[in-house]
User: What shape does this take?
Amino acid sequence: MTTAIHAEGLCKRFGDTQALRGVSLDVEPGTVLGLLGPNGAGKTTVVRILSTLLHADAGTATVGGFDVHTQAHQVRQRIGLTGQYASVDERLTGRENLILIGRLLGLPHRTARERADALLTQFQLEHAAARAAQTYSGGMRRRLDLAASLVGQPQILFLDEPTTGLDPRARLELWGLIRRLVAEGTTVLLTTQYLEEADQLADEIVVIDGGRVIASGTADALKARIGARTLVAGAAQEADVGGIAAAIGHVTGEAPEVDGLRISAPARDADMLPALVRALDRDGLAVNELMLRSASLDDVFLALTGHHADTGDDAQAAPGEHP
Amino acid sequence: MSRPGLLRGLQQTASLAWRTLLQLRHNPWELGDFSIQPVLFLLLFLYVFGGAIAGSTSDYLTFILPGVIVMNMAFVTVYVGHGLNTDLTKGFFDRLRALPIAPWAPLAGRILADLVKQAWSIVLLLAIGFLLGFRLGTSVGGLFAMAALVLVFALALSWVMVLVGVIARDPEHVQLFGFTALFPVTFVSNVFVPVETMPGWLQVIVIANPISQLSDASRGLIVGGPVLEPALWAVAWSVAITAVFAPLSVWALRRRIMNG
Assistant: This one.
């Protein structure tokens, strides 16, 4: 079998907004691709095109070897889709939602019920099976969404920001469920705003910004490229900022960024923290705060594009990003 | 395997219609909404205005029952737009579109479910009417013909509400647009009063109103009187409304989902 998902030069415009400007990517069968980017980067648009919900203006894509435009039905027979826009019916119970999808997929009554119950058990929703989905907590709702996309036992799964808005515990639970699916051989394309999530789940990461692919590779390769960590210092007084910046620049070999009293720079090596402490001590520079933190999405973007990722609600978000 | 055949599509339509009716079981207030409201309308007009309009409530019941059935049919079609808009805005429609089902099944399921609600409303209003003393002036065949005619028109009007459901930003706006449009159309008709009592210029409008033609045909079918001409008008209106709004609605729906 060839690649599970193949996209080449996808372009999409919504009115005046050019949401995608030629996105290409490949996902090998049985692997997880993390599509990483801030709000409005075009992640959702890519998923909507690949899951046959939207036609690209230009470019081609195949999923499971079938063209998403001309063979949409064959693609739909092979995919599952979970995203905030591909939701369940809130007014039906969890069980009814899953039975409905089973029936729509052509399962006989009994098989549809059995499949629904098996999924409810697998996703720890048996206790809420008879309650309307609108009464579910955020984590339960995402689990039901995921279960709904698995009724047809898809080979390829699209997960559009599966854990956005979830608390850490619910996020960990969902990660566990996704890992289990991957272990069973499902191919996954996952979009996320969180570097950590891509790092945890993805074999390969594609970073997109402004509708373009700006980097791709394994998590380790990306981290090596951007600096896995950031060294951050908070100057105790204005007068020391220049000196601290110089020390950080010297230790990390990178141009530090200064924001008020905060100075930061990518750090490739954990040894850089003690080295900096010694340098500051030697030069008599006072700091209120000193830390080595893991790279955030913002660091990735700063390193790759030279600008900050706007992960808040972006006024320039493509319409498809927030339907 | 290519697209599902007609039979599979119809099964999927039935499953989706079942789903819409299942929602009623979990939200009984909605069932009350389109059951209690028409009954209240009937009782209100019958006992408050009946004496003044027709001299006696029993005479007025004969006049108003077919009219209220028609008026209520128009209001119930708003649920098509409301439900469709809810599915579009909440994302359930996209879930369906990503499934390997007939592309027309979601809309057809919605409309089929609405026809079931329509049939329920007609049965309910007739039952209340008979309880209040309504006497069938024609035959059981006439009764079924009336119900069939009202359902045909409901199907046509559903396409208008599909368009409203696609265009409106949220479900609340569907109800706002839908009821705002339906109030003048149903009241500037002969649903509540005979057209002869109105000024000449208004008579022209009222007679041209398809709701009036449908009410007249319904009266003819269950009370007695001329049937053929108003029934033909009602059917002609149904065909015309469908011919205009079905393609327009489908076009608008494609546009919305392909840009969203």
